[in-house]
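Hey, quick one: can you model this chain's 3D structure?
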Amino acid sequence: MIALPHTKELLDVARRVVWFAEPDETLRHPYTFLAYLMTYTTPRDYTIVRKYLSLADFREALENAPPGVFDPRSWAYWNLVCGREPVPPMPKRRIPGVDPDHIPQLDPRWSR
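Sure thing. Here's the predicted structure for all 112 residues.
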């Protein structure tokens, strides 16, 4: 993945999408930034980011997505947009010594 330039418009998008972190820091982690963007984006923010990144970059971000960011609906949508069919399982948290298949998943009704 290419490094994201720290332009004013990308910093503004980073500030809106990852509201709990400093925009400069957010852009230093493109996979995490794109995961939040794909989950919380607006058409305007998506259009801005697409000036700098290709659909292949979005696909790469899905392949390296951090666990706990995507909701099931966004995960399914973006995987289909990026041509990843069938849609792979969502990323799972890794806890040393714990089998990730035995970690309870949050009920989707609670994540709204």
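One thing worth noting: The two ends are 31 Å apart (CA to CA).
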